[in-house]
Every structure is written in C-alpha cells, then in structure tokens.
Amino acid sequence: MTRAIWLCIFVLWSHGSPCHAQNEGQTNQPIEYAPLGALMTDVGDFDRQGKRFDATFWLWTLTTNPECNPLADLNFPNAIEIKESVINKEKTPRGFWITRKIRGTFRHAWDMTDFPFDGQTLGIELVSTGRDYSRLRFIDDGVTSIVDSNLHIQGWDILGASLYASKMTYRSSFGDPRIEKTSEVTYAAADVSVTLRRVNYAAFWKLTIAAFVAAGLVIPAFFIRLDAQTRFGLLAASVFADVLSMQSASSDLGAVEYVTLVDKIHILVLIYTFVATVFVLYTHEHHIHPEASPPIKWNGFRMALMTTFVLLMGITALVWRVWSQ
Question: Which of 153, 262, 162, 147 is nearest to 198 (CA)?
C-alpha cells in the first residue's frame, strides 16, 4: 500500500500540476510578427530655430489576430504635436489590414555645420506600447517605396528613405503590479527616415554678403592717402559689420552652439581686418609725412593684394572642402 502511494506521488510530480501547466502556457505565448509599411506623402515647414519639421505619412500592417492592433497603440517619442490621426481596419482573406494616416510636427536637431551644402536625415520614431516585445514585433513588409513619387520639396533633393524595425526599452515597470519594480519593459519600435540634400544656395549669399562688404571696407585702408582717423574708422566699420552679420547668421541658422561654414567665413574676414589694422598701426607715423607717401602706397598695394588673395583662397578652400564631401 505504501509503495503504491509513493508511486502515485512520483507520477504527479513528474507530470506537473494543472496550475503549473497553465502558467507555463501563459508565459510562452506565440509572438505576433506584424509586417510594417510606410509611405511619406509630405514633408515641409522646416523650422531651424525651433528644431522641428512637419510630416504627413501613412502606416500599414497586416495581422491575423483580431485582438491585435499595433497601429492603434503607437506612440511617437520625438513628436511635438500629432495634428491628425485616422485609423482604418478591414478584414481581408489574408487577415486584418490596418492603415493609419498621421500628420504632425516632429523634433529634429538640425546640423547646419556645412550650410548651404548640408544634408539632413529627418527621422520619426514609432513605439507600439500595447504589447511588449515578447508578444509583438515589427518586421519589414517588403515594400521598397517609402517616399511618394509626387513628393517634391522646394530647395531640396530627396536622396532616399528607410524604415527600420527595432525595439525600445524603458527602465521602468510603469507601476504594473505584475512586474517587479526594478524590471524594465521592452516594446516593438520602428524608425521612419528620409534623407535630404540642399540644392538652393540663395540663403548662403544673403547670410554672407555683409561679410564680403566688410572685407571690401578694409581694402582702402591699406594704401589710399587718408588721415589716421578715417583709416581706423574704415577698420572699425568693417569689424562692426562683420560681427553683426555673424551673430545674425548664427541666429537665423539656429547654430549658436557650434561653428558653421558661414561662421568660418566671417572669422576669416575678422582675421583679414586684424592684419590690416596691424599694417595701419605700423605705417601710422609714415602716413603723416608727405615724402613717405609713394613707398607707403606701394607697400600698401602689395599688402592689400597679398592679404586679399589669401582671404579669397581661404574662403575657396573652406567651401571646396564642404562641397566636395
């Protein structure tokens, strides 16, 4: 009798209890792989100072689970405002076809270092928080066209676009009592991006014309027969115009934190003005004596020619280095 009892206990232990089997089935739920597609139909309203841009795009997916709607649970971590969001769900022979149209404003850290020969990759982050990564994952739906062929952005060329499936991990349980407080949660995510390159250079000349005018004010100070006050006045006007132009350009580009190509051109003009100031100071005593006027004019002409040539070559080298990348 005792032997029979021990045999029954062994059988029950080896096969596991019904409660254990139920919990195991809950923790090993099948993963839902959702094919994700995207089409960008509009991009614009670029705001460099506000570090933002507007975009309109479509998302779609296909699922066989009627209770699963990955697009309804989407969050946009880099969105400032979602202005429009329409979700449609239709039953098809292959499953439930879900589409969502989104129009919103999104953050973008504009890198204006190489302006106006810069390229920008505008990205939109997507995170589906309805189910964690162990139950839902995005995959590519195989559609290669991510940008509408009718999309044209004035002043920009569209170099390409991409859609990458990924995951987002939050080091928090968000107060879920079923998860340990020290745990982390991972969700299915994706990144939609479009790469642009600037082709309109009109803004570059508007932001640098004052720097070239400032350089032009320096040239007469080299050799024209002027009194000291007028020569220093030209140099002071050059510095004033160049500094104001550089500050205005940095503000317009939204690039106060770093040095851009436009800033480097203004800095070269400041160096050019500094060299002219040193020359004027050196020749100040000779300038007030008429007998020293011819050699001073000749030396001033050579100095103006040499420094202006170096300035132009420096600007050309800066522009060529950025343009040729």
Answer: 153
| Whether the predicted pLDDT of 12 surpasses 50 | no
Quickly list DSSP for 219-285: THHHHS---HHHHHHHHHHHHHHHHHHHHHHHHHHT-SSS--HHHHHHHHHHHHHHHHHHHHHHTHH
> 110-151 pLDDT, tens per residue?
999 999 999 999 999 999 988 888 888 888 887 767 899 899
> For the chain, which residues make up each domain, given as ranges?
28-198, 202-323
| Per-residue model confidence (pLDDT) at position 226 | 54
Residue 112 CA from chain centroid, whole number: 9
Which residues make beta-bridge pairs with 33? 137
3-state secondary structure of 20: helix
Cα distances (angstroms) measured from residue 16 to each of 7, 12, 19: 14, 6, 8
Residue 254: closest CA among 53, 48, 109: 48
Residue 104 has pLDDT above 60, yes or no: yes
**Which CATH number applies to 202-323: 3.30.360.10, 3.40.1080.10, 2.102.10.10, 1.20.58.390?**
1.20.58.390
Strand order through the sheet with 156-170: 74-75, 119-132, 185-198, 156-170
CATH number of 28-198: 2.70.170.10
pTM of the model: 0.77
Question: What tokens were used for 23?
Answer: 């919990």
- Pick from 88, 108, 116: nearest CA to 43: 108
Q: For residues 59 and 35, what is the distance between their CA atoms, to the nearest angstrom?
A: 10
Q: What is the pLDDT of residue 70?
A: 87
Residue 23 dihedral angles phi and psi, to the nearest 5°? -65, -40
